[in-house]
Design brief:
By secondary structure, this protein is mostly helical. The protein contains two helices and no strands. It has a domain at 30-76.
C-alpha cells in the first residue's frame, strides 16, 4: 500500500551509546546537609516557578542556605 520513506530507528539500550554515563561515573557525593536539602527543594521551586510565574530559583537564598548548612553540618 504505502511505503514508509522514514522507517523508525531500532530501539537501542542507553548503555550501548558511546556517551552513556552509567556506573563508571557516579553522581558526586553530597558535601553536607545543604546539598541534600537542595536536591529536595530545587524541583519544588521549579514547579512553583512554572505554576505561579515567579523566579524562586534565581533569588540566591537557596545558594546561601546550601553553603550555610554544608558548613554547619558537613557529611561524614
Amino acid at each position: 500500500m504505502f511505503k514508509d520513506i522514514n522507517p523508525p530507528k531500532p530501539i537501542t539500550r542507553p548503555q550501548d551509546s558511546p556517551d552513556w554515563k552509567g556506573t563508571d561515573s557516579p553522581q558526586p557525593k553530597p558535601n553536607g546537609l545543604g546539598d541534600r536539602v537542595e536536591r529536595i527543594a530545587q524541583p519544588i521551586a521549579r514547579a512553583i516557578d512554572k505554576v505561579a510565574g515567579t523566579n524562586i530559583q534565581g533569588c540566591g537564598a537557596c545558594q546561601k542556605r546550601k553553603e550555610y548548612l554544608n558548613e554547619k553540618f558537613p557529611s561524614t
